[in-house]
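User: quick one
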Amino acid sequence: MIAGPCAIESRAQIDLTAKFVASAGAQMVRGGAYKPRTSPYAFQGLGEEGVKLIADACANAGLPAVVEALAEAQLLVLEWYVDMIQIGARNMQNFALLQAAARTMKPILLKRAPFATLDEVLYAAEYILLEGNPNVVLCERGVRGFDPQTRNLFDLGGALRLKELTHLPVIADPSHATGRVSLIEPLVLAAAAAGLDGAIVEVHPEPSVALSDAEQALDFEAFSRLMRRLDALRGTLELKPKLTALK
Amino acid sequence: MIAGPCAIESRAQIDLTAKFVASAGAQMVRGGAYKPRTSPYAFQGLGEEGVKLIADACANAGLPAVVEALAEAQLLVLEWYVDMIQIGARNMQNFALLQAAARTMKPILLKRAPFATLDEVLYAAEYILLEGNPNVVLCERGVRGFDPQTRNLFDLGGALRLKELTHLPVIADPSHATGRVSLIEPLVLAAAAAGLDGAIVEVHPEPSVALSDAEQALDFEAFSRLMRRLDALRGTLELKPKLTALK
Amino acid sequence: MIAGPCAIESRAQIDLTAKFVASAGAQMVRGGAYKPRTSPYAFQGLGEEGVKLIADACANAGLPAVVEALAEAQLLVLEWYVDMIQIGARNMQNFALLQAAARTMKPILLKRAPFATLDEVLYAAEYILLEGNPNVVLCERGVRGFDPQTRNLFDLGGALRLKELTHLPVIADPSHATGRVSLIEPLVLAAAAAGLDGAIVEVHPEPSVALSDAEQALDFEAFSRLMRRLDALRGTLELKPKLTALK
Amino acid sequence: MIAGPCAIESRAQIDLTAKFVASAGAQMVRGGAYKPRTSPYAFQGLGEEGVKLIADACANAGLPAVVEALAEAQLLVLEWYVDMIQIGARNMQNFALLQAAARTMKPILLKRAPFATLDEVLYAAEYILLEGNPNVVLCERGVRGFDPQTRNLFDLGGALRLKELTHLPVIADPSHATGRVSLIEPLVLAAAAAGLDGAIVEVHPEPSVALSDAEQALDFEAFSRLMRRLDALRGTLELKPKLTALK
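Assistant: Done. Structure below.
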C-alpha cells in the first residue's frame, strides 16, 4: 500500500500524513512535488522544496518515498532524495524521460496512460528494462471512459490480464481511476481479492482544503478503516504481495 | 450466484449443469434458449424446447431459472416456465420488450448495454418499474473497450457507482465482460469484496465443445474452486447479498 | 438527402416541413412517430396518428417518407403508409425486429449503434438480407465518444471503410452524431466530399420549440443554405448518389 | 497541405519527396528524424543527421520543414534547421517539452492525443501561448476507437468544434487517424469541405519499402491526384486557409 497526498503542500501536511499512513500500515509514501496539471493556471507543486519535504517526512516515518518526475532535469533531485520514481500517465510514452529515469537505477512506478493498450504499456516498460533497470511496477489508474459519473474507467480486467502477460508487479490506483472518495475502499478491496500486487491511494489530513484532487483523497479515518478491512481480507486470501520487496 | 451454460444444448447438458451448480452452492441457474447472435449464421438456440429443458432441470435441482427474452412472442413461454426473465445488453433500450417483459411481473435481470451510461441504465430500469414491476436486478457485463486483450471492459467502478444511485441490486457478469476463463474467478472475488450483490457466470460440463462462448465458460472444477474461495471471502466481509430474496 | 423533423408533432408542422424540404431539393422526408426515448418520461411520439400525418404530408410534397419502427406491432401500419422503414441505433441488434421489418419488403434504413463495430453492422444487415430483402441503406450516426462537447463522435472514417466492405449504400446522420446545429452543414459537406451516398438531417420549422432534439434541428433558412452549398459541391465532385434510385 | 515521409530515411528519399510534393502544390514538408515508437525495437529515426537532410531538401524545394521533437535536448538542433516544431500526440501533455519548444519561438504543430478532450487540447496549447509564442496549429489525428478496422477514429466533428472554441488553426492528419491509404484522399477532401484549415499527410516514393507506417503513406501518383481533387474542391468552396501565412 502506497499512500499520501496528491501534492506536497507544506512540511506539516506531509509530515503528518507520512507518520499517519505509516502507523496505519502503509508500506510507502507518495506525494507530488512536480505536478502535471492539465491547465497551466492550476497549482504546479512545490518543486525541489517539496521533494526535500517528503524525504524528511519519510525519514521520520521510516518509509520509502515515491515522487513523480515530469522532466529529465528533475531526475537528479529525485535520484538523490527519493526511493522510487513515478512516471505519470501523461508521460507513459515520453520515451526520453522513461530512459533517463531508468538510468537512475531507482525502481520505477509506471502508470498506464488512459488510452494505452496493454501492449503499449508493456512496450513502455521495455524502454526502462532495456536500460538495465529491472525494477518496474505497473499501475492501472483508469482508462478514458464515456460516462462522467466516474473520472476514468477502472480497468480491473485489463490489470489482471497484464499480470498474465508479464512478470512485473501490477498495482491499482483507484483514486485517479474513479475520482470519487466513496469508491476507493471498495476498489482497493476488489484489487486485493482479485490478486493485484498493491494499491496507491491519495490520503490528505483535510481533503476539503487540498490544493489538488480534493474530491478523491481519503481522510485519515477513512484510510484507517480501509487498512483494517484490507488486512482482514488479506488474511483470508493469503496474498503474498511482491511490493514488500521494495522496503 | 447465478450459473449455467451460455446456451441450453441438450437435456443431458442442462440437467447435469443445473445439478452440479446447485451442489456447488449456486442460487439460480442460467441458460440461453433464444440466443441473440451477432451473426445470423451462428447457433440460434433451441427455442421453446430449450425453455422446457431448463425448467425440468431446475425443478430437479431445486433452483430457480433465468432465461433471456429476445422478442415479445417469447414472453408467454418464459412466463410459464421460468422464474426470472433476462433482457440482454443488445435489447437494453428495446423499450417495447422492456415493458412487455415487465408486465409478466416476473423479476427482470436487466443487462447494461456496452455503450450505456449509468443514467441510461437507470432510465431503462424505469421503463420496467413504471409498469408496476419492482423486481429489477441490474447487471454490469462490460462496456466496449479499445483493447482486444479482453472482449469487453469490466466497469467495476461504474457498477459500484450504480449502487450509490439506486436501491436496485447490481450484479456482475465477468464471463461476457472479459471473454477469458482465467479472469472470471478473480473478478467474481473482486465484485464480492467490493460489495456488489451477486454474479452470473457461464458454466459448461465441457467448455471446449460448447456451441457458443466456449472460451469464457468455466468447467465444473473451476466453478467449484470459485465457490469455495467466494465462501471464504464472504465469511470475512459479512456480505448480505440481496439476491437470495429471489429464492 | 433525407430531411424532416425528429418527431412528427402536428399536421401543420409536418406538412410545412415536407413541402419546404421538397422545394429545397430533398429526396425524402423523415419524421418520428414512435420515438425511442432514453427516459420513459420524455415525449413518446404521436404513434399511428403521426404515421398518417407524414403519409399525407409526403403525398402532398411528392416525396417518399421514412419512419422508424420500434416494435413488430408497428410494422403493419408502417408497411401500409410509408416508403422506407428505419431501424434505429438502439435496435440495431434487435434481431426479431430486423427480420420482421425485412419481411415487409420495404427498403430498410439501418442505423449503426453507438458501440457497434463495422462487422456488427454488416451482420445486422445480413439478418435483413437473409429474409430476401436486398434494399438496405446503412447510416453512420456517431459512436459513443468521451468528450461531452459533441453528443456522439461522428465516425466518417468508419463509414468510408464500411463502403469498402459492402455494396450497400452508406449515409451520414450528422444531427444525431454531433447534437450541434453548427456542425451539421460542415459534416454533410464533408460526407459528400468524401463520397458517402447521402445524408439524413433534422429540419424543423421552429427548432426552439421542438418537442425533441431541439438543439440539433436546422431551421428552414439553414437547410436552404446547406442544400445550395451541397449542390455546388456535388457539381464539382460529380457524385452519383445511389439513393436517388429509391425515388 | 503539409506532406512528406513518416521518417527521413536517406538523402535521396527526402530530396525526391520534397521536390515532388512541392511540384504537386504542397506548402510544407514533414519528415520524422526523432521517431516516437511504441516499441523500443522499432526504427528510431536518423536523429540530427535526418534533421540536416530535411533542411537541405527543403532549401532545394523552396518549402519550409516541420519536424517532431521528442525531448528538450533536440530543440537546439531543430531550432537551427527547421521552420516549425511538431509536438506529437504522445507528448501532448509533456508540459516541460511544450514550454521548451514554445521558447524557441518557432511555430508549433500540436497534435491532439488519442484520449484528449478538446479542453485538454486547449490547455496544452495554453502552455505554449503562455510562453509568449502565439503560433500554434492544432492537429486532429484520431482518437482511440474500438474497431480495429481503422487505426484510430478520425474525429472530424471534434476538430470542427475545436475551431469554434479557439482562434487557432486546426488541421487534419488522416494518415495517422485511419492507418489506411484508401481513406486518406476522401478524408482530406472531407476536411477541406468542412472548413478545416489544412491537412498533413504521409507521402513516400515507395511506400511498400518504408521503414515505418508503410501502410498509410501515399505514393507520388496518389498524392498528385489528391492535390488535383483538392484544388477543384477549394475553387468551389472559396476556402481561405490560414496556414499559407506560415510561408
